[in-house]
């Protein structure tokens, strides 16, 4: 009851006209920045950090609440429409979302994404209000061995579940790990796979890889097949611009399952929402295979609903970990931590005592921000979708320009533009020969984490590999992974036997 009373007091401070204005401004700006390829919620908070210095702390953090979720809403918009996610957290949504858009169901995909983000965010933020101390305890259970087990789980699960062929999935995983290893090795200071080029010492930026593989690769692939679609220059919409009862019936269990994946991962510092979004996507794909009419690969609404709910649920519980522990579990949360410190405040247990008014007003503004974003995004879903009515040759030329601008804006490096083109060609070749993109992306994102945690574990144990299996959590993850792979192998053998019969 005490938490509920504090939350009501927070709402009393957050619903003043000026604070509501800051929420709306933050939501609009966050969505606008999130829509730009290569940028996202982290970049939006970073860009707007100096703007808020003239505001009082409550006004500044209320605006950040709008930016925080607005960026996440915007991230998936271009991913669905143009196959160019604004941030890595929207990659899993992009796979089925873009297929829905190509099938003429872009408004429904955007509406599914908006409602999923709202559902995941509301569930996570509600849990943060009432159970923040209990959620924070989960993070303290994870050490280097557990993080490494988690990364291995994500690698193998993505390579074997998302891909139609295990061999192709593992090949894509190796490509991603190779890209992740480019640059200077932290502990030794040695350069790896840089070809002696100083421009590669910092590695290949995730923005370059994401935009190159997903966006430019798609452009090149479409261009190579454009002669097959001479008569079709636009993508018409089919069905109503809103979700039908059938759509909602398919999507609502996926929204809940996605939120279930996202909430625990928000308090584990694994770098963001990539793992839960891919796990939610993989789960829905696995469930879809049991249905009479599988839809994955054709534009399954569950493939949009679950990852989007998981991403925003992770963001919501990450805010709880930041406030309760002072533990930033994502890039956006790290920038928020810097914002708190800029105002002379240190997130953690004492924050609730020393700055209770600010904390509860901020939590209340998170609820308000999500409602504002739902109101802003749902009516505009058909309007956003009209981007696909642009003739293909103009649309994809524009995507190519935005790819280059987005990459150059983040680094001001011409070397990144060359890398963008090369990785775009890699994306084209992977599409040409049927290699999945998801394992590459998850390997690039989690590869450095897996390597770092493996080295930490081995350093603590003085080279004893047994430390990787000493933890109950790690062993549980390995056992679940082994059972899942075994189950999948048995199923494939059964299918081949049936086909032979």
UniProtKB/TrEMBL annotation:
Residue ranges annotated for the DUF112 domain, each copy included: 20-441
Pfam entry (one): TctA
InterPro entries linked: DUF112_TM (IPR002823)
Domain of life: Bacteria
Keywords: Membrane, Transmembrane, Transmembrane helix
Transmembrane found in the keyword field: yes
Tagged with keyword Ribonucleoprotein: no
Membrane spanning residue stretches: 20-49, 109-132, 138-159, 166-184, 204-223, 254-272, 318-340, 360-381, 393-426, 433-450, 465-490
Descriptive protein name: Tricarboxylic transport membrane protein
Protein source organism: Actinoalloteichus caeruleus DSM 43889
Lineage: Bacteria, Bacillati, Actinomycetota, Actinomycetes, Pseudonocardiales
